[in-house]
Design a protein that fits this description.
single chain; mainly alpha; Rna Polymerase Sigma Factor, Chain: A; Arc Repressor Mutant, subunit A; 70% helix
Length: 191
């Protein structure tokens, strides 16, 4: 239990430093959380009878939400429950969108998010705002409205002035492009 508390203190300190404008601390936080989130999502997806490969999209969605909603975090509170709430919401939303039963998602302690870590796949230099600027506007807006702001596809389509299927396509292509950009950044760092 002591290790979980140490991890909470470490991550919370990174979050607070990031909120104070330390971009390196913010990147370190997102990098550390990506491993925990990846392991969490793989476990939950398998338990829900889904493929673990769906975890990567969920990790990216959760990291984007953590990044864009970081201003809603209260530094006087623990970080883990806040991250957990975002992670669980993204999982339930994903399963709902993909017509899976929400009853397969067990309600568990927020410590489950921090209990596992996928070190091998830890993302190293995530700056989601910078990544989003690399996308064409139609992809960026679709991702922002649907994945970050939480609008329905119908609402996003109305706001963008395009069809619902165009919104879905733009989100899918944008997430695919973001994954490719992250992979390219990692290759550049290590190569």
């Amino acid at each position: 239990m002591n290790m979980v508390h140490a991890k909470e203190r470490e991550l919370r300190a990174l979050m607070i430093r990031g909120l104070d404008g330390d971009s390196a601390a913010h990147r370190a936080l997102l990098s550390a959380l990506s491993g925990h989130l990846r392991a969490y999502y793989r476990n939950k997806l398998v338990r829900a009878g889904r493929g673990a490969e769906e975890a990567e999209d969920l990790v990216q969605e959760a990291l984007m939400a953590i990044h864009t909603r970081r201003g809603t975090y209260d530094p006087a509170e623990l970080l883990t429950p806040w991250v957990y709430a975002i992670a669980r919401y993204k999982l339930i939303d994903h399963l709902r969108r993909s017509r899976s039963s929400q009853s397969n998602v067990p309600i568990e302690d927020a410590l489950d998010v921090m209990a596992a870590d996928d070190q091998a796949a830890t993302e190293s230099s995530l700056d989601l705002t910078k990544l989003l600027t690399r996308l064409p506007e139609k992809n960026r807006l679709a991702i922002r409205y649907v994945k970050i702001d939480g609008l329905s596809v119908v609402e996003a389509a109305a706001r963008c002035g395009i069809s619902e299927s165009a919104v879905k396509i733009n989100v899918h292509r944008g997430l695919k492009a973001l994954s490719a950009a992250i992979a390219q950044d990692k290759r550049n760092e290590h190569g």
